[in-house]
Specification:
The complex is a heterodimer of chains A (223) and B (511). Chain A is of the alpha+beta class. In chain A, 17% of the residues lie in helices and 31% in strands. An eight-stranded mixed barrel of chain A has the order 3-4-6-7-13-14-12-11. Chain A has a two-stranded antiparallel ribbon with strand order 1-2. In chain A, strands 9-10 form a two-stranded antiparallel sheet. Chain B contains 13 helices and 22 strands. In chain B, a hairpin with a 3-residue loop joins strand 15 and strand 16. Classes of the chains: A alpha+beta (223), B alpha+beta (511). At the A-B interface, helix 1, strand 2, strand 5, strand 8 and strand 12 of A face strand 14, strand 17, strand 21, strand 22 and helix 13 of B.
Chain lengths: 223, 511
């Protein structure tokens, strides 16, 4: 049976080729998996709250932001178990990008500093991480439902100043810079911004904004 | 008062009472029945005069003349009654003064001696104040001398003003502040002292000289005498005021000391208001700019009103006695305020616009797209539905912030048909309270080549007022390893498959 012998001959060659390709696939995958830092363009100079190395979605944080990971007391939201150091950074070229993923960052050149809370809005930003990472912002977001996990009425303390959450919302990242109501500088107000991660694990396209009012302030929540 | 030592007889009183009652209808009848008739000194009452004819024992009683005062406003006649002393008023008459005329304050201008000789019959429930204009001694042998004294008896200077000027100041102060009921002012005959007090009040109210004189001379008409004369009131009293005190205005404000606030209070109290202005107009809580609303073009306010009705428009008038009506046609309300005088009106026109809905920056809209919506001019704290048409479908809910703005993110239904749609905010019952926003929704498959658009003022400003916030990241070794795991897994599967094939083919070749 020439057919049989030919089929066997061709079949043997195909099997061999497939085996070579398959071995190559396993080998490449293994190499990639064993050298986790070699792929992607992002930086991974920091770690998350669990100690895992972090790769940021945005461009590398710029030194001009003069970011410090601590030095302004702590940022805490007891209702979601969040209590991290409060650092500071500056807006550079219209971007707020915290370099670290273990702190909350007060934005120096927006609104007022926490010690001047009665005079304006304190703006705080922090990372949330996908892929199983644990950034401080992860405590604030409900990935499955695509919204904030912090409830209206929850207490937030910023460097010893206590606020009560009045509103949370999800804003598309591209809409956020134009949202005058969010960036308004209003006495006794706190705005916390982090990224809303997505259930499918792809990079975030929305921000979660938590707005709060200082407890005991003149614009305090109605009793 | 030697010229008239004896008051008119009872007979005369009776006849003049009848005359006064009839005079309103037939004024001419006076000359034939009064003892010393003189048409110039006993003018016939007019329709503006309100003689009191239903109080037995009162002859010279009348309300203020309802004549024209300052700025064309009418004098509110019923706020003050002037009369002679109340010693002959019957109990029934006193009761009438209390219940019909609402007299709750009597100002008696007589001397203590005169009061003692002819004490007033008390008006039930009324307070009585004694302010003797002449001080202790009120007997005059000469009327002209009396009218000189009526200007400034005992006046030395501003700190020693004597009884007359002090009395005027006191009486006018009471008239400016007593607002609970009618004030009855009287002296002995209700002619001279009462006459000059009413003269001063009338001057504050802006009543003209002819009307002041007419009211003064009505005492002659009602009493059937000719004692009151222009020579006394104008030739003596007002002449002295003009020559010694630089005129009536100066006499009132500087000598007597009527303050601008007192004058204003007197005018408020004794003039029927012609103030037809609104002090505030709101449409469902939204304040209407009155200056614009009073123009022919009217004012436009933004209010979340589903269907404008008169009940949505609330009007406060500057003068509490003014009345307002609201007429609604479509989205326009016309407010008409009618002043207390019943003739002066003011009109305010308000056009009501609905809040405009705006979309945040967005790309092509397809079914399932999430868009940011925003609006302002809504009722603070109120909840609204976000509805997409044509087939109404509620796709979200928003609550207005304390400043009336709303912001929210809504997702277009996945089954929304491509094409033109409208988006609006609705109240709890589904009635649109915002302007509809036109949307063009592309089909999901052609989205890459068709750009969605929002018409009208749909796009919010794209001017950055804040930074973007890059707070996303991942952990190395996390979900990004998935492709490599998949590749390796596939390789293992292929290898496994190849192994299985070899295992199956070998025995078959041996047979």
């Amino acid at each position: 049976m020439t057919g049989t012998s030919r089929r066997g001959r061709w079949g043997g060659r195909l099997t061999a080729l497939a085996a070579v390709v398959a071995v190559a696939m396993v080998a490449v995958a293994g190499v990639e998996l064993l050298t986790p830092h070699s792929h992607g363009a992002g930086s991974s100079t920091s770690v998350d709250l669990a100690g895992a190395p972090v790769q940021l979605d945005g461009p590398p944080p710029v030194p001009a932001a003069s970011a410090t990971p601590s030095g302004h007391g702590r940022f805490a939201v007891p209702s979601v178990g969040l209590d991290v150091p409060l650092g500071a950074l500056s807006v550079v070229d219209g971007v707020v990008e915290p370099p670290g993923s273990t702190s909350a960052y007060w934005v120096r050149n927006l609104g007022v500093e926490p010690s001047a809370a009665p005079r304006g809005t304190v703006f705080v930003a922090m990372h949330s991480l996908r892929g199983g990472g644990v950034g401080p912002g992860n405590a604030l977001i409900d990935v499955a439902d695509g919204r904030a996990r912090v409830a209206v009425g929850a207490t937030v303390t910023v460097d010893g100043v206590t606020y009560r959450v009045t509103r949370t919302e999800t804003v598309a990242k591209r809409d956020l810079p134009a949202d005058a109501a969010i960036w308004a500088d209003t006495p006794d107000r706190l705005v916390v911004v982090t990224c809303l991660q997505r259930p499918d694990g792809r990079p975030s396209v929305d921000n979660v904004v938590v707005e709060a009012t200082r407890v005991g302030g003149s614009h305090s929540t109605p009793s | 008062m030697s010229r008239r030592p004896v008051r008119p007889s009872a007979l005369l009183r009776a006849s003049t009472t009848a005359v006064a009652a009839a005079a309103v209808v037939v004024g001419v009848g006076l000359s034939s029945t009064a003892a010393h008739a003189d048409p110039d000194l006993q003018p016939a009452p007019t329709a503006q005069d309100h003689a009191i004819t239903d109080v037995p024992g009162m002859v010279n009683g009348r309300e203020l003349g309802a004549v024209t005062g300052l700025g064309g406003q009418r004098v509110e006649a019923s706020r003050l009654i002037r009369s002679e002393s109340l010693d002959k008023v019957t109990a029934a008459g006193a009761q009438t003064l209390a219940s019909k005329y609402h007299v709750d304050l009597v100002i008696d201008l007589r001397t203590p001696t005169q009061v003692a000789e002819k004490p007033d019959v008390a008006i039930p429930g009324a307070q009585e104040v004694h302010i003797s204009m002449f001080g202790a001694d009120g007997d005059y042998s000469d009327d002209t001398a009396m009218y000189h004294d009526l200007v400034d008896k005992g006046y030395v200077d501003a700190t020693n003003r004597g009884p007359m000027v002090s009395a005027y100041a006191q009486v006018l102060q009471i008239l400016a502040t007593h607002t609970s009921g009618t004030v009855l002012v009287h002296c002995s005959h209700g002619m001279d002292r009462t006459g000059t007090v009413v003269d001063l009040l009338d001057r504050v109210l802006g009543v003209g000289s002819a009307d002041v004189l007419h009211d003064y001379l009505l005492s002659n008409t009602q009493l059937g005498v000719t004692w009151a004369t222009p020579a006394l009131l104008q030739g003596t009293f007002e002449h002295d005021v003009a020559t010694k005190y630089d005129g009536m205005d100066s006499y009132l404000s500087k000598t007597i000391g009527v303050t601008p606030a007192e004058a204003a209070a007197l005018r408020t109290r004794f003039l029927v208001s012609d103030d037809a202005s609104a002090s505030a107009i709101t449409v469902d809580g939204v304040t209407v700019p009155l200056a614009a609303a009073s123009t022919a073009a009217g004012a436009t306010v933004t209010a979340p009103v589903a269907t404008l009705s008169a009940a949505d428009v609330h009007v406060s008038t500057t003068n509490a006695a003014a009345r307002s009506t609201v007429a609604v046609q479509g989205d326009t309300a016309v407010v008409t305020v009618t002043a207390a005088d019943g003739t002066t009106t003011a009109t305010y026109t308000v056009h009501v616009a609905r809040p405009v809905l705006a979309l945040g920056v967005h790309g092509t809209l397809t079914p399932g797209s999430t868009v940011t919506i925003g609006s302002s001019g809504l009722t603070p704290g109120a909840a609204y539905q976000v509805v997409v048409h044509s087939t109404p479908q509620v796709i979200g809910r928003v609550t207005a912030a304390p400043d009336g703005t709303v912001r929210g993110s809504v997702t277009l239904p996945a089954d929304l048909a491509p094409g033109a749609h409208t988006l609006f905010l609705a109240d709890a019952t589904g009635n649109a309270v915002s302007d509809p926003l036109a949307l063009t929704v592309a089909s999901a498959t052609t989205a890459s080549s068709t750009s969605g658009s929002a018409a009208g003022s749909a796009t919010t400003t794209t001017t950055a007022v804040g930074p973007s916030v890059a707070t996303g990241g991942t952990v190395a070794g996390g979900r990004d390893d998935a492709p490599w795991l998949a590749l390796g897994g596939l390789g293992v599967l292929v290898l496994g498959g190849l192994g299985a094939l070899r295992f199956r083919s070998r025995p078959r070749a041996e047979h």
